[in-house]
Amino acid sequence: MRDLALEVRGLHKHFGKTEVLRDLDLDVPIHSIYGFLGPNGAGKSTTMKIVMGLLRPSAGRAYVFGRDVHRDGPAARALVGYLPQQARFHPYRTCREVLEFVARLYPGRVPRGALRDRTDELLENVGLAELADRRTAGLSGGEAQRLGLAQALVSEPELLILDEPAAALDPEGRRDVLGIIESLRGRVTIFYSTHILDDVQRVSDRVAVISGGRIVADGPVSDLLTGNESTWTLHTRGCSADTRAALTAEPWVTDLDVRSRGDSEIWSVRLVGDEAAERLLHRLLLDDGVDIAEFHTSDHTLEDAYLSIVRNDREH
Amino acid sequence: MSTDRQPSRFLPGLGGLLRGELARWYWRRILAHTVAWTLLVTGLLWYVTTRANDSEWRGFDLLIHIWWIALPLGSIAISQNAMIEERQGGTLSWVVSKPVSGPAFILSKIVSDLVGIALPAVVLQAAIAWWMLPALDPKAGLAIRQPDMGRYLIVVGVEFVIIVLFVTLSVCMGTIFRNRGPVAGIGLGVWILLWNSPTDIIDRMSIGGLVSGELSGAAFKPLTEFLVFGQTLDPASGVYWTLAWAVVLTVVATGVFSREQF
Hints:
Order of helices and strands of chain A: EEEHEEHEHHHEHEHEEHEHEEHEH
Number of domains of chain A: 2
Distance between the termini of chain B: 29 Å
Low-confidence stretches of chain A: none
Mean pLDDT of chain B: 91
CATH architecture of the largest domain in chain A: 3-Layer(aba) Sandwich
Order of helices and strands of chain B: HHHHHHHHHHHH
Largest interface: A-B, 33 and 30 residues
Largest sheet of chain B: none
Shape of chain A: elongated
Radius of gyration of chain A: 23 Å
CATH topology of the largest domain in chain A: Rossmann fold
Oligomer: heterodimer
Low-confidence stretches of chain B: none
Strand content of chain A: 25-35%
Shape of chain B: elongated
Number of strands of chain A: 14
Structural class of chain A: alpha/beta
Number of helices of chain B: 12
Largest sheet of chain A: 6 strands, mixed
Structural class of chain B: mainly alpha
């Protein structure tokens, strides 16, 4: 527990008869940037809300730096900055007042004399310096998201929990958020959920994939990227439906995606990636008389790994 | 990991929440309320007393009567929004995701509304009436003479207890219901019940027995009789019971709120 910023053990949550989390375990090491991935409704936000004390678990425990989030909630939350999925603020406060209000809820975190400098710096960092004195009622969705990130950071937290921090942002805003996350590397533990897998691959040290309310993969990003699958791209002509069906039936083919382009087709074939499977694929297509204009393997991306993990989980 | 910057174990977050809530009252809101309460209480007091003939002159009884109408209604109107506004605006879950406790959140709502209502509606109007009513007294009669300062402060305290009751009631109902209608409706129902209580038990167990009554005839309200005629505060139990109800309502509100999920 000593080296963990966030520890979740045996978490269950059900709403009525719907089970949202099932025996979920999670270890987020101190100073890691930890991506939390999963399809819609998999339980990402529910997990985060339980950690923030907004929901009570049906069973199980969660600890922030060893503090039980339900028995010792305020003490645990004092170490956390949290950005909810939909950031909402008091409409009568200005952006600066929101940050000052939040900072005062964390006693001793921001010295009184440094509060103005701290809020100015944060508003500058998230691109809201010019809107510092505008009431939050007039903010766009992206601006509210930026303010949400600033308020999560204002207390100089040791653990940052971000529920889809880039969801409402334009590309520039997304880049800024990634830049802020990068700038905190090694100083703050960041646990965040997202659907933007490129971002995860770019900044995360570790990821966990949640599906159906339980963790189905967990580990360093590099481990997920070196799975035993590979993706091959083929530009073909004259391929029959029988060939496709035969290929899909092969046990070593985990996915086949076909797109038409003019009189040819582009196939993306995901294989259980040993060399024999690749040779077999090649032979099968040549035996069937398929004209292959191009044939190359693609880099295994986090998206490939994620889709494979989620699909495998659903099938089993 | 830092461990030296922990929130207070007693009502964590109360200071920050209270400061944030009170900041809403600075300065435009408190000025608007000051103007509105002055027009309502002092304006009505001045209007009625300057047009009253000797037999209709009620002096401080009229002030207590106006307060008994205005304070419950004003408290309900302002405090029915305290929880509903946060919940409907989606800010409730945001605030409680900070290092604050449920009781601290509830208390910050109650205390800020008490201050925001009591200062312009009771303290300021009481000060104005203290000087204005004797000056308007057409015959310097018994019922409108300058009262004893100590008794006047107790009357102001009783009026504050009225605000305490209706603010805590509204905040408590705001934790139970999701819409303003039931919150305001229950507050109004309690006010009407206390004004027209069908039994002495309610009079003795609430503030209504001290301040309700008609604004005509020979009888004055018990609180007026205490203030102007030097009688004992009867039933004084109403004050204690009302404070006890306020404590119960606050405990219920924190209990319900602590079980809420977001």
